[in-house]
Specification:
Layout (H helix, E strand, L loop, with lengths): L12 H14 L4 H6 L3 H14 L7 H15 L2 H13 L4 H5 L12 H14 L7 H11 L1 H23 L20
Helix pairs in contact: 4-5, 4-7, 4-9, 7-8, 7-9, 8-9
Length: 187
């Protein structure tokens, strides 16, 4: 599949700024920025949202990573899965946990709380969402209210990312090639 919008966007001042940042942080300009650059208002809003979300610290970063990866896997966004493997590997996450996200139910590498987080992310990412009261209450009790809200919002944000990237035809950008984590065969 090829992108459904040109990835050589207009070279506005804002795009040059976010390109510089992307190159500095990720080693390349990421395709979602290239796509969003066709609408300066969208690029500006997404950039501000991502920078703000990056400062949220109520939820354990590994739980947040598992939730985001489970959501991307449920939706089937190959760009998000590729980037998520690389990003979380870079931050020291156990490669076995990254590899097993698509098969988390059968895997023995996750703790009960991690399983609940991935179940919640998966349930939120279905259409329509299928979150049960018992699961939500278990997570709220285990995490606390602030972390539960952060978890819920991160999964919603990943839904926006994954659905946007998938709809625009954005696919793997080769991030996983820069770490030893293999992508599952079904993606």
């Amino acid at each position: 599949m090829t992108a459904r919008i040109p990835l050589a966007p207009p070279r506005t001042l804002l795009f040059r700024a976010v390109s510089w940042y992307s190159n500095r942080v990720y080693g390349k300009v990421i395709d979602p920025l290239r796509a969003a650059a066709h609408h300066t208002g969208v690029l500006w809003a997404q950039s501000r949202l991502e920078l703000s979300a990056g400062r949220w610290k109520k939820l354990d970063p590994q739980l947040k990573a598992l939730a985001v990866m489970a959501s991307a896997t449920t939706i089937g966004c190959s760009w998000c899965i590729d980037f998520g493997y690389w990003e979380n590997h870079r931050h020291g996450m156990d490669p076995a946990k990254l590899r097993d996200v698509p098969v988390w139910r059968e895997s023995g590498v996750y703790a009960p709380l991690e399983r609940d987080v991935m179940e919640y992310a998966e349930a939120m990412s279905l259409t329509p969402p299928q979150v049960g009261d018992d699961l939500a209450e278990r997570l709220r009790g285990a995490l606390g209210e602030a972390a539960f809200i952060e978890l819920t919002t991160m999964v919603a944000l990943e839904n926006m990312r994954s659905r946007t990237n998938s709809a625009l035809g954005l696919t793997s950008q080769g991030f996983k090639d820069r770490c030893e984590v293999d992508r599952p065969a079904n993606l």
